[in-house]
Every structure is written in C-alpha cells, then in structure tokens.
Design a protein that fits this description.
5-stranded parallel sheet, 41% helix, 21% strand, 7 helices, alpha/beta
Length: 199
C-alpha cells in the first residue's frame, strides 16, 4: 500500500511532525510505501485562485496543483496530521483539500451531483490539541469535526474513513516520556489499521 502523509504544522520540531514520523516508520515496517507532503515546508498556497473555481470561464489547474496530484495519485491511504486550531484543521490543510482533492482528482460532475473518484481508498486522521481529552469529549468537538470534515470529505470523494485518532493535552511542557508514550500509541494504531492489509 502507498500512504500519502499530508502534514500541516509550521514547526518541524512539533509533536505533530514527530507523530507523522512515528506513523511512517510503523507503516514502512509493514512493507508499505509513504510519500510525505509537508505543506508548510513545501510552501503550498492554500488560496483558491479564480481560475480554479469550477465553472470559471478560464478554468485551469495551476502547475503546482497538477504536480501535487501526480505525487499522491497512487495513494491507497490519505493520512492527515494536523493540530486543531479553533477546533478545525489549519487553513493550509483546508486549502490543500480544496485545490488538490477537488474536481478532476477527487470527484467529477455526475448526473445527480458529483461522482467520487477515490473509491476504495482510505482516510485516516491524527490530530492534536492543547485541550485535554475530557474537554474534547464534553464539548463534542471531536464528533463535530468527524462529521463536518472527515465524513463529508470521504462521502464526496468516495473514501472510507479508517479512523480519526485525536490526542488531547499536547502542550509545550509535556515530558519526553509522555510524548514517547503517545507516539507509541500512534504506531500501534497504524499497525492495527493496516497490519493485515495487502502490500
């Protein structure tokens, strides 16, 4: 299997980066392939230009978007790694979804709306927040994000949602031991989700 690891955090020393690396190590140990798309490091522009809006008279896809689509075209799994900002994905990830996973790649116009183009592939998300897990559960923040982002994206594109693993209480003064334990949980989740998948 091939995993497109889409990473949306501006700090390369962040827990989110370490979490993505733990996932990549785990799935590679299963014999899978990964392609990392570090959106900040790549300087990805999340802004949708007028000519990329479907139906625009001069509709065309920018070269950077076409190149990005080529890099992830063969992915069996789209693995998103991002922090919660106001209980939502960072704007750079939303812009990536808008531009890269839009018409011509993720879906096409169909007789009854849209025709998904990524059927048979999977979506998995690994997210973090400074808010503790108890608050996340109490407010329903995770369930809201799963419905409004994961499930909607998967429905439009034809993906199946493998899981959404959220880690709360990720703070700057977290001990190295606590961080390592959480990274081990991510590796365990990767093995659980993809260990029996065909390579």
């Amino acid at each position: 299997m091939k995993h497109a690891v889409v990473l949306a955090h501006p700090n390369p020393a962040s827990f989110t980066h370490a979490n993505a690396a733990a996932y990549e190590t785990a799935v590679r140990a299963l014999g899978h392939e990964t392609v990392r798309r570090d959106l900040y490091a790549a300087g990805f522009d999340p802004r949708m230009p007028a000519q990329e809006i479907p139906g625009a008279p001069d509709y065309r896809i920018a070269e950077e978007v076409a190149a990005e689509r080529a890099l992830v075209a063969e992915a069996d799994v789209f693995a998103f790694f991002y922090p919660w900002w106001f209980n939502a994905p960072p704007a750079i990830l939303k812009g990536y979804v808008d531009r890269v996973m839009g018409p011509g790649f993720g879906y096409a116009p169909g007789p009854s709306g849209v025709q998904p183009l990524l059927a048979g592939r999977r979506l998995v998300s690994f997210t973090t927040s400074g808010a503790p897990d108890a608050w996340v559960a109490q407010t329903g923040a995770l369930e809201t994000l799963k419905r409004g982002f994961d499930a909607h994206l998967a429905g439009v594109l034809g993906l199946s949602v493998a899981d959404h693993v959220h880690i709360g209480g990720v703070v700057a003064n977290m001990t190295p031991e606590a961080a390592e334990a959480l990274l081990a949980e991510t590796a365990d989740a990767a093995r659980r989700l993809f260990g029996d998948a065909s390579v």
